[in-house]
Amino acid sequence: MSPVSESTTPSKVELTDEEIFAGHLGGKLSVETTAPLDTQRALSIAYTPGVAQVSRAIHADESLADRYTWTSRLVVVVSDGTAVLGLGDIGPRASLPVMEGKAALFKNFAGLNSIPLVLDTKDPDEIVETLIRLRPSFGAVNLEDISAPRCFEIERRVIEALDCPVMHDDQHGTAIVVLAALKGAVKVQNRDITGLRVVISGAGAAGVACANILLAAGISDVIVLDSKGIVSSSRTDLNEVKVDLAARTNPAGLTGGTAEALAGADVFLGVSAGTVPEELIATMAEDSIVFALSNPDPEIHPEVARKHAAIVATGRSDFPNQINNVLAFPGVFKGALDAGARRITEGMKLAAADAILSVVGDDLSVDKIVPSPLDPRVAPAVAEAVAAAARAEGVV
């Protein structure tokens, strides 16, 4: 697959129901053997009696499982189906086509084996316990489409319980690509990222993770909005996650809603299902940046946003500057597994963002602040950077 050229203009893809359902018929995954099974001798090596020798060896030294099984290179995509795409709580069975798609992306972009694992429970205790019991079967966990605020607790507890890479992609995959895109935007504008005032609309999984990674990148003036307005220390209706967020954001102590937050802001980052009026985008600072990432309907149409903003990005493929998680998660997990990392750190995420941006190179422009999701250079670059960061941080 060759990189998408800079001259390629994104266009809306028209899909028919017949085409969509045909593409999912029988599922999107299969298991293929890597050892021949075409002779009696081959069968005796792959299965009984030969396999018993390998099992005995692993029984004596469990670390050999990494070499003689697929465990160390297998990612499980885990969901309870409570926050699927823009569909909400549709349950584990209805979420399975999405999880199959995610597993297919791991294989296509990073060469990693991956299987979906949908759980018929919403209980954090049961989800964590299930993964603990299944730990011998996999090498990494991609948590997916789990509703907030439960997703924060579940991710934290799974990370604490398991000695392998764990990441909730809705949080950190989004945050990594947002940071890469923002670094690309300020590079085009020759601005210092640390001087930006950023407004994040949405205090769910993606919004909280984006706030955290932007703070880690040195941006001190971050304001987060939830459905009731600015997340501030003066509010008494915040959950535990938002209380923590309020203590680390909104340094000017602003109160109110979207209008108060956006006046004079440099960046609008939309990761909610809401909308933002054009007249409020017009109140932002000169050379403003708008990332309207809700799908399928951005918080503001990009053509409208462009009337007032210098750089605009969305989560859609039919507009320039698509902020797509596939730029991050395949390479992040590949790099973590390549390095033998026990966890995915903030430093590894920052390294991933820099690697994504590095692929754009001299093609960087107002309409190309991140590479195409189809660019085959991305996952290898991210994997190399993440593995190097893991070794440097000593988490291997």
Automatic annotation (TrEMBL):
Q: Where does a divalent metal cation bind?
A: E144, D145, D170
Q: Which residues form the Malic enzyme NAD-binding domain?
A: 171-391
Task: Relay the cofactor remark from the entry.
Answer: Divalent metal cations. Prefers magnesium or manganese.
Concerning InterPro entries, the annotation shows: Aminoacid_DH-like_N_sf (IPR046346), Malate_Decarboxylase (IPR051674), Malic_N_dom (IPR012301), Malic_N_dom_sf (IPR037062), Malic_NAD-bd (IPR012302), Malic_NAD-bd_bact_type (IPR045213), Malic_OxRdtase (IPR001891), NAD(P)-bd_dom_sf (IPR036291)
Q: Name one GO molecular function term.
A: malic enzyme activity
Q: Which SMART domains does this entry report, sorted A to Z? A: malic, Malic_M
* SUPFAM superfamilies listed in its UniProt record: Aminoacid dehydrogenase-like, N-terminal domain, NAD(P)-binding Rossmann-fold domains
Q: Which UniProt keywords apply?
A: Metal-binding, Oxidoreductase
Which cofactor(s) are needed, names only? Answer: Mg(2+); Mn(2+)
Which residues are named in the active-site annotation? Y47, K102
- Residues that bind (S)-malate: N295, N324
Q: Name one Pfam family in it.
A: Malic_M
Domain Malic enzyme N-terminal intervals: 26-159
Family per similarity comment: Belongs to the malic enzymes family.
Protein name according to UniProt:
Malate dehydrogenase (Oxaloacetate-decarboxylating)
Q: Which organism is it from?
A: Rhodococcus tukisamuensis
